[in-house]
Every structure is written in structure tokens, then in C-alpha cells.
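Q: What does the assembled structure look like for these inputs?
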Amino acid sequence: MKELNDEELQRMFEGGNYSSSEPLNDDAKVYKTLFETLSKEPEPGLPYDFAAKVTRHIKAGQKRGNELRSNLIAAGLFLIAIAAACCLLLIYTPDTANVLSKYKWILLLMSVAFIAIQYFDQKLVKARIFNNRS
Amino acid sequence: MFNEQEVVTRVLKGDLRAFELLVKQYEKLVFYVIHRLVKDQHAAEDICQEAFIKVHKSLVRFNFQSKLSTWIARITYLTAINYVRKYNREKAPEYPDDIENYHFTIDTPEQLLTKKDTANYVEQLVMQLPEKYRSVLTLYHLNEFSGPEIAVITGMPEGTVKSYLFRARKLLKEKLEVYLKHELP
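A:
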């Protein structure tokens, strides 16, 4: 085999332009070993069920997103219902305006507390019940 | 046979089974890139998962102008690089500007014991190279990407990719030559 420099040797092995029957000089032999070694797959690889794990993770993320959206919609509807009830009360019994004004912070706090209880009930208690069942 | 256009369309319609097929198709590619940049096996698995989650989120922006494998490899490369820089877990050594002057630290007695075979030895040498050299070598030899594709994935100019490949392999060859002389009868 004629003498080749590093660049030529690398190009030869990159393209696979050598005949296995052709005797290789020392440099070429080392490059051949290096190219073969660099192409070896690393061990260990990913677990067998990696793809399933990734899709489970994405599904869980989507479920969390959907639950959050539903909870926000429910909370919004609840607040709208409270506001509508107050409006109706003011329209049909204007005298209650003073009472509503006096207890507005308590009413607001009760509404927020109700939403918070519903949220934590779903998040902690129901989730634990379902986890224990499965 | 894996039809990337059909699979991408199904994933975009919300089909998670199609995404599972996509993961199976490209998990080796993703793992090879991450394995060479992140040494911790458990962290590597987490980053593989993170990379695929990013792929799932960004798939809507994939416009088939490049190969899907190149696009996934770019997301993977950036995810791994971000992780390495953010956590700096590897305590990367200071690399000289001129890589030809780089000295490997493989010849300590402990490391000599692990020189079980050539593959192990080369793997240890590769892991000591700067991350850009490691990435280029992996993308070329394990993932079988071409020079222009590696340039797209890493964001380096094609000339730099070729130069890194050449210099890394020359450096590894010099070390391997010495090793083989001592090992082989």
C-alpha cells in the first residue's frame, strides 16, 4: 500500500474506498480500528419500554392541562353565577344593597374558599382514592 | 416501513400511538447524541425524555424542509448542550485553543485497569474531548449524518465540522497507535 497522509487515510475510510484484500500499513490499520470502534453502539442503551414511558408522560401532561382548563372554567362559571345572583337580588329587592355592601368581603372570601376546597378535594383526596384503587 | 410524513400527520391529529412509533424510530439517534454529552446514565435517560417531549410540542412547526432525523437531532443536541451548561455537572476541563496540544488524563493507574479493550479505551478518550468534538464524532460515526447535516444540527459552519472531525480523529489515532503498540504482542 502506498504511503498516505492522515487526511488521505481518513478520506479513504470515510468513503470505504479500500479493498479488504489489500495489505494495510501501520497507520492505515490504526485508522481502520479507530473507525470501526467509533461506529460501535454504546452500551447500555435506553430501557425497552422507553417509548411507552415518553407517551405516558405526555398523556399525563395533557390530562393535567385539560383538568386545569376544566377547573378554571368551573371556577369562572361559579363566579358568574354568584354575580348573577347578586344582580338579581339587587333588581328584585333593592334594600339588600346595603347588606351586600356590608358583607361583600365575606361573600367574596366564601366564594374563593369554596373554589379552593373543590380544587384541593379533587387534587388531593380524589387523586389518593384513585391511586389506592389502581 | 416508517413513513415520516404519515406519522407526523397522525401525531399532529393527537395520535399518541403514532408518536410512540416516532420515539421508537429515533430513540437510538437521540440516545447516542446525549450519551456522549452527558455522562450520567440516569440523567441521560431524563434528557432523552425531555428531548422527545420538546419534539412533540414543536412538531407543529416542522415543515419537512429538512429530514425529520436532522430536525430531531438538532433539538436533542440543543437540549443536551443546555443541560450540560445549566448544571455544569461534568466540571469540564479547560481545553487548549489548539487541540493538538491536548493531554488526555487516561494513564492514571485506576484508569489503566479499565483499559479492557480497544473500544473501552477509545470511548474514554472520546469522553475527554471538548463537547463540540464529541458531538461531531458521534453525529458522524454513530448517527451517520453527513457534514452539511451536522452543520445544520450543531449550528457550526461546515468547514469547522470537517476540521473538528479531522483533528479529533487524528488525535485519537495517535493515542490509539501508542496503546495498540503496548497491548498487542
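The radius of gyration of chain B is 18 Å.
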